[in-house]
Amino acid sequence: MDEMKRFIANADLTVSEAMQKIDAGASGILFLTDDRDVLVGCITDGDIRRFLLAGGTMKDPALKACNRNPKVARSHEEAKRLYHDRNYIAIPILDDQGTITALYKGNNCEIRKKNNLNTPVVINAGGKGTRLDPFTRVLPKPLIPVGEFPIVELIMREYQSYGCDQFHMIVNYKKNLMKAYFAENENRYDITWYDEEKPLGTGGGLSLLRGKLTDTFFFANCDALLTANYESMLKFHKENENKITMICAYKNFNIPYGVVRMGKNGVIEKMEEKPLLSYLVNTGIYIVEPEVIDDIEDNVAIGFPDIIEKERQRGKKVAAFPVSENDWMDMGQLPELEKMRRKLYGE
Fold it and tell me: Which of 42, 90, 267, 345 could form a disulfide bond with 70, CB atoms 3.0-4.6 angstroms apart?
């Protein structure tokens, strides 16, 4: 029953609260029940993403975003058959009243196959990483270890799990250490190196790849690890014919006080006790069309968000793809580095 509680919640949740419960359970799905514990729907991180992309908000009721007709079974045998026919996350087994009596989740050790995306990956690895001082006095930020591997290799291994084996690395600070590490790496990654002669920011280094890429590519900073579905991101980017897709994560902040909105002459217009605030933030990971590189000036420092704004002003189609906060790990500062290590290795 304790295991089942991670998958089940009352249907009076908001979308934001549902997302937090999905993240906390690390299951990818939440079954919603009414006050009589009868199943009324299920919601996944994909349902939430589609709802938000259609104009919904994090404060809306989760019932607006959920699937009101989830696949269910009346016996263990039926649940097993349904699960393996379609590769579901979980199948609820209901009694005659519609109450969940059990969940079938298949073989927990089963690894679900990822499709090969065969998409180039550009990693911006030239910054000094001043927020990680004093570690970066010795090592460049991409080589700072998070458990068994440095952060940049963890990022590369995630892309490789989707069949993305072609890497383009923009380097500057302590670049010889970077090259030496990979020259001796037993995995023998396919890396093309691009040396900045001066710091070019988070976007300017892309000018060094002019004429080198002819297909859609992933572009990532070297301090963020994303464990979301890269196939879904790429599909969204291409189906919507975006020039740039920014991968964004919802960050939720609980205000531990009662918040008051005051009007003229001190009149209290609204009070909200311990509100939850949600913001869509840039993860530093993008999907980009190669023509964008042609719009970047040579040898000029610029941040990639500024490039996005310039493309938007030119009338180019740019969009955001939201992912769960739980799918994004950032190590830009020391506390986040430690949180990433604990999340990956549970220590």
Answer: 42
